């Protein structure tokens, strides 16, 4: 179980869409898997304005989702596919939500669980 807040999908029912409330709005996140390449991707669509959408963001280990985007409507939370145990270095369907989670990188600091190190 991750120490940070995580976003979880129904991996047995892809594509799977969940509604997530972030600091600056509510968004639908859809996880899907490319059948040819096996690449996992995620879509983000604002519930309030479906013109605010990004489709097919690749899920890459250790790389924050939408890091390249400067739109002011993108969630301010840093969502990062990561293994807190440090054992994995890639994201696959079999690793997602077993050892690699999509984590809110800011949540560990907000909860006060850090040791100051």
Estimate the global geometry from the Cα principal axes: globular
Question: Number of DSSP strands?
Answer: 7
Report strand order across the widest sheet. 2-3-4-5
The structure class reads mainly beta
Question: Roughly what is the average pLDDT, rounded to an integer?
Answer: 87
Q: What gyration radius follows from the Cα positions, in whole Å?
A: 14 Å
What is the terminal separation in angstroms?
A: 21 Å
The largest sheet, given as strand count, sense and whether it forms a barrel, is: 4 strands, antiparallel
Please explain how this structure is put together.
- With 117 residues, the protein is mainly beta.
- The chain has one domain (6-110).
- 3% of the residues lie in helices and 33% in strands.
- It contains 1 helix and 7 strands, in the order E-E-E-E-E-E-E-H.
- The chain is globular.
Précis, in short:
The chain is mainly β. It is 3% helix and 33% strand. It has one helix and seven strands; from the N terminus they run βββββββα.
Secondary structure layout:
Elements: E1 6-7, E2 16-22, E3 25-33, E4 40-46, E5 53-58, E6 79-82, E7 101-104, H1 107-110
Antiparallel strand pairs: 1-7, 2-3, 3-4, 4-5, 6-7
Keywords:
1 helix, four-stranded antiparallel beta sheet, globular, mainly beta, 117 residues, three-stranded antiparallel beta sheet
């Amino acid at each position: 179980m991750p120490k940070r807040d995580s976003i979880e999908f129904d991996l047995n029912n892809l594509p799977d869409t969940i509604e997530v409330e972030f600091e600056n709005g509510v968004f639908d996140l859809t996880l899907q898997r490319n059948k040819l390449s096996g690449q996992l991707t995620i879509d983000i669509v604002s519930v309030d304005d479906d013109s605010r959408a990004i489709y097919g963001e690749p899920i890459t280990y250790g790389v924050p989702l939408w890091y390249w985007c400067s739109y002011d409507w993108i969630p301010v939370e840093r969502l990062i596919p990561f293994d807190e145990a440090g054992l994995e270095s890639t994201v696959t369907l079999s690793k997602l939500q077993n050892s690699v989670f999509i984590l809110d990188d800011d949540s560990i600091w907000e909860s006060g669980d850090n040791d100051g190190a």
